[in-house]
Amino acid sequence: MATPDVFGLNKLKKTMEHNIMEETVRPRRNNAWTMHKRHQIKISNHFDSHQSRLRKTIPGEHDESVPQSYNTRTKQKGITSGCNTIKVVKTFTDYCDRCSLHGLKYVGDLQLHPLERIFWTVAFILAVVTAAYFITLLYHKWDDSPVIESIAARATKMVSIPFPAVTVCNMNKARKSVAEEILNSKNPEDALNKILLKDLCDESYEIYSSSTVKDKDVENRIGNWDTIQNFMTYVRQPCHDMIQSCYYAGQLEKCEDIFNPSLTDEGICCSFNKVKRDFIFRNPRDLSDLNVTFPMSATDWTPEAGYPPESTTRTLPWRPRGTGSHLGLTLVLDAKIDDYYCSSTASTGFKVRLHNPVETPKVADFGFLVSAGEEYRVTIRPIISNASPSLRKIPESKRQCLFSNEKYLKFYRTYTQRNCALECEANYTLATCSCVPYYLPKDANTTICAKRDENCTTEARKTSEIRLTDESANTSNFGTDSQELSPKRCQCLPGCNELRYRGTLSSSAMSGKFTLSKEYNATNQTYFRQNTAVVHLFFTESQFMAYYKSELFGFTEFLSNTGGLLGLFLGFSFLSAVEAVYFISMRVWCSVLQRHQHAAADRQTSVLLTNSSHVSVVTPYPFAQ
Question: Do 156 and 33 have their domain in common?
Answer without folding.
Answer: no
